[in-house]
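dumping this here so i dont lose it
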């Protein structure tokens, strides 16, 4: 199945906003303050600041991860024949676009953290409460690349590549049983089963659900534009549900209560609704300047994703160390300004690298170099 031009355009314009969502997820400190290893700067969180952060990070932005799994599966399976030659060709391509950047950025993260540990009085600056890189055993180093990435956000690349290695099984299963495997996984996920094996990730059930869903979209030749017919209802229902959920989450956190089973089910159900709402919202940007803006920035999405940590952590710790927030307004302001600065700065760096050191940029982003448009003669 070939992807329509409209769907392809909407996928492209979603890339940058979704990556911004990933950065926003990692900005939220769950009200625990900022750790420096030997101490902690405690932000005076309250119901308002927590509500805002739960709403944007734990609800709106959380749609980014399942959407990326769906999009990745759609692009992987769109011309997948099931033959070994097709499988080999696709895996070979993903080694270049996913696996090599994964190992490179993991190595860079380890190198940065180790270098910081060598500085006077800075040994725990990046590690926080985690083990120092200098204390790693051989097994720890292997684990930092194979099952627990040194740069934690790279778990997505690792899980995605494993899903693609398993793609023939997933393809046959979804092609034969249609929605049934996804439904069974979804029921297990709602029931509290988050992982099938520690080899992938502690949330591998969620990853499987949405990767299989992307495969189903291709095998069943779904036209996703049918969601646009219920756009107002879908977006409205999601916004209302997300607000209610964020209120419940913030109150439970303030009461230091463990998330109740009902809230967990509600959260997972609303996440699925949020995925549909995000796709519907992309239709509003058709043929607008905002569409052009997001598509122009889309090629830098991978670089922002790969490089935003530990950069975000460093920026946050510097700001909190020298300009600690003293009230709710400052906490909320920092919450939005920090990721905005990180995203803007990395976009500029990515643009510069692409133009000044294009080969390096191509390697570290998995051949996602932005080609210059030829000047008209």
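and the seq i came up w/
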């Amino acid at each position: 199945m070939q992807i329509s031009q409209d769907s392809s355009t909407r996928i492209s314009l979603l890339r940058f906003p979704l990556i911004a969502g990933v950065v926003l997820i990692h900005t939220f400190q769950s009200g625990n303050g900022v750790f420096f290893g030997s101490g902690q700067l405690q932000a005076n969180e309250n119901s308002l600041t927590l509500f805002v952060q739960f709403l944007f990070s734990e609800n709106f932005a959380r749609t980014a991860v399942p959407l990326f799994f769906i999009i990745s599966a759609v692009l992987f399976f769109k011309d997948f024949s099931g033959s070994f030659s097709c499988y080999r060709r696709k895996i070979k391509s993903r080694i270049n676009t996913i696996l090599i950047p994964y190992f490179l950025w993991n190595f860079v993260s380890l190198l940065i953290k180790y270098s910081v540990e060598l500085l006077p009085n800075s040994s725990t600056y990046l590690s926080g409460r985690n083990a120092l890189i200098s204390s790693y055993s051989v097994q720890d180093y292997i684990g930092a690349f194979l099952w627990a990435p040194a740069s934690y956000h790279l778990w997505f690349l690792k899980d995605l590549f494993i899903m693609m290695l398993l793609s023939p099984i997933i393809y046959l299963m979804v092609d034969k049983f249609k929605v049934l495997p996804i439904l069974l996984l979804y029921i297990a996920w709602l029931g509290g089963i988050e992982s099938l094996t520690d080899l992938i990730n502690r949330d591998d059930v969620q990853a499987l659900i949405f990767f299989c869903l992307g495969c189903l979209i291709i095998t069943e030749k779904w036209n996703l534009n049918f969601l646009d017919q219920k756009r107002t209802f879908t977006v409205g229902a999601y916004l209302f549900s997300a607000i209610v959920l964020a209120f419940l989450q913030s109150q439970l956190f303030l009461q230091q209560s463990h998330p109740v089973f009902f809230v967990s089910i509600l959260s997972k159900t609303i996440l699925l609704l949020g995925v549909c709402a995000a796709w519907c919202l992309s239709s509003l940007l058709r043929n607008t300047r905002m569409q052009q803006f997001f598509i122009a920035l889309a090629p830098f999405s991978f670089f922002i994703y790969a490089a935003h940590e530990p950069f975000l952590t460093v920026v946050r710790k510097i700001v909190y160390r020298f300009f600690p927030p003293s009230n709710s307004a400052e906490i909320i302001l920092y919450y939005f300004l920090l990721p905005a600065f990180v995203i803007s700065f990395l976009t500029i760096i990515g643009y510069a690298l692409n133009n000044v050191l294009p080969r390096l940029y191509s390697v570290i982003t998995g051949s996602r170099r932005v080609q210059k448009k030829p000047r008209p003669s």
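The beta strands are 34-35, 40-41.
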